[in-house]
Automatic annotation (TrEMBL):
Phylogenetic lineage: Bacteria, Pseudomonadati, Pseudomonadota, Alphaproteobacteria, Hyphomicrobiales
Protein's organism: Rhizobium loti
Protein name as annotated: ABC transporter permease
GO annotations of cellular component type: plasma membrane
Cellular localisation: Cell membrane
Location, primary (coarse class): membrane
Amino acid sequence: MSFRERLQSWRYNLVPDHLVGEILTKRWTDNAIPFLALVATLGVFGSIIPGFFKLTSLQESTRQLGEFSMVVTGMTVVMLGGGIDLSVGSIFALSCFSAVYVFFILEQSIWLALAASLATGLVFGAINGYLVGYLRLRAFLTTLVTFIFGRALFDILVTTYAADVQLSTATSDVLDFIGDSTFWGLSVSVWLAIILAVVTHIALTRSRPGWHVLAVGGSRRSAHNAGIRVRRTVFMTYVFSGFCASIGGFLIACRLSGAGPGTGLNLEIMALTAAVVGGVSLGGGRGSVIKGLMGAIIVLTMTNGLIRLGYGTGTNQMVLGIMLAVAVTIDIRWLKNRHKVLNEVYVAPVYLKMGETQSAVPGSGTPYELDNRLSAADHIGLGELEGPEDVILDRDDNLYCGTRHGEIVRFFAPDYVKSEVFAHIGGFPLGLAFDKSGNLISCVGAMGLYSVSPDREVKRLSAETSRSWTSIVDDARLRDPNDCDIAPDGRIYFTDSTKRYDAHDWALDSIENRATGRLLVYDPKDGSTKTLLDGYRYTNGVCMAHDGKSLFFAESWACRVHRYWLEGPKAGTAECVIRDMPGYPDNINRASDGNYWMAWLGMRTPSFDLSLRHPDMRKRMTRRLPQDEWLFPNINTGGVVKFNEKGGIVEALGDLTGDAHPMVTSMREHKGYLFVGGILNNRIGRYRISGADPNWTSPASYWGAKP
């Protein structure tokens, strides 16, 4: 290795460039900016204002925060539904006055005052919801009109009844408790705000109405086409906003025991700014209650801090305006350019120098020398199939394969002319295996590990494994489960080819060539899925050894086959038994003579091997060229190889004409025939194996003779 290549190896293999792309794909990154802004705001004002974090100061601030958070929570839900509510300040003020009027002037109970406050908010929210949701008026103009009307009405009522409120002698211990008391160091208003936020968050993320709100905010047309009652959903968001504002109004009425001209003034601007600063999208469908609360803390800390520093109302309004403008700009630009940024940074190739290999060219005289025997294979299902990636036969000699349409097709013995859809799973069924009870186990790309019973009942066995908390890469979800096999004790061993890409993005994974493949095991006894091995370049085929004490698995992009020991002194360890092959290995299955069949999905080329030593070139390629012009592994020519327990190559078969099976992803020996599948093929091949045992079957090899 030259010095330049050594530097490239250090640069691209040791510097974790891929973590940037991984972080940007995470939903929690949307919370990072508001969280950092929150920490910075608290840190700045806490350091420059004496006593900012004293208990008495915090208690007064949190009372305001509780009331303000109520309003922000309602505003957040409306915005998540794709709307906006500029009337929350008026509703807040009118609800406050309703409570004050009923309690201090009419001298009714505090609970009747609460009911009056809630009724005010619900009525105004219903008016907004009806106009915006059912009459489909513009939310901005409609709520602006409601705001003007509500504010005018409040000013009239306050002017008319201000003296009566001041002369009232009505008192209530409940009112004093709500307005002034604390519980475990926090005011009542804060506890109520926390309860409301938790309930709202659960409703949005765990209930059907909450999902409907997010769906409507994401795309009203799509939500309507999906059967969601869009108008009712929009209506309910405004009713909820009015409800939240009315609770806030009631709480401030209890705290101040009155209402004045400044009640709720500019509250709609503060609430809108808080929601947007927190990361709730103005376009709808993106955000959360937690984000809204972070924005509420930022805005309230900013405004109160500026007042305590001696700055006037004008400065506060200017700062809020700047914050809103910056937040809106970030929201719009990030939403528009997020995918562009990810496309620029996500694919992060590494350096790899492939080892020298032997030739597979006919006449080369190497063990890998391909011949033309597969071209003589008979065709099954010609033109009826799309992508039979794996093939398998049951005890009754019936033939099964998956298709790219999410189906498992069964061809009936003995002539395999008649077929039927055995089961519809969805996704792309890849590796197949029969367990002892006759259940057909399948790895389904981007979905997980599935089982189909003999009576065609489809059951998901696993879609995730234990999360590695030390890894930023999300390795809990099974992204590309590929092939599987079953041990004598019933445990299912299977590969997840890559943790970074789904099955259809295999080309990106090959170009990046990062070691993110793994070997996993599913235990049917407790339903657990565990990762056994990690750090391989596209783990693929899996096959139990004939004695059931170890298994073989393929590492496609590294052109290697490994053996993992289940029992004995090497238990829990893996060793490479075949390395530097001229082809990319895929599925592995047992042979009748005690050896193993292995598919080659494609052949190595000098150009791609060379590109693996130039990660910067591959990086530029994915950014500047359309995908159909990328350089990636050759999958147009492959074959079938037989190897023994020690990894020695016994024979190699191919289709040099390229007419029938130029690319092979699977093969299965059964009663003297080799059945051949390919992920890009439109047929299954059946090739008679010279000298093979005509009675040998894979089910009998695993589970004994047919009972």
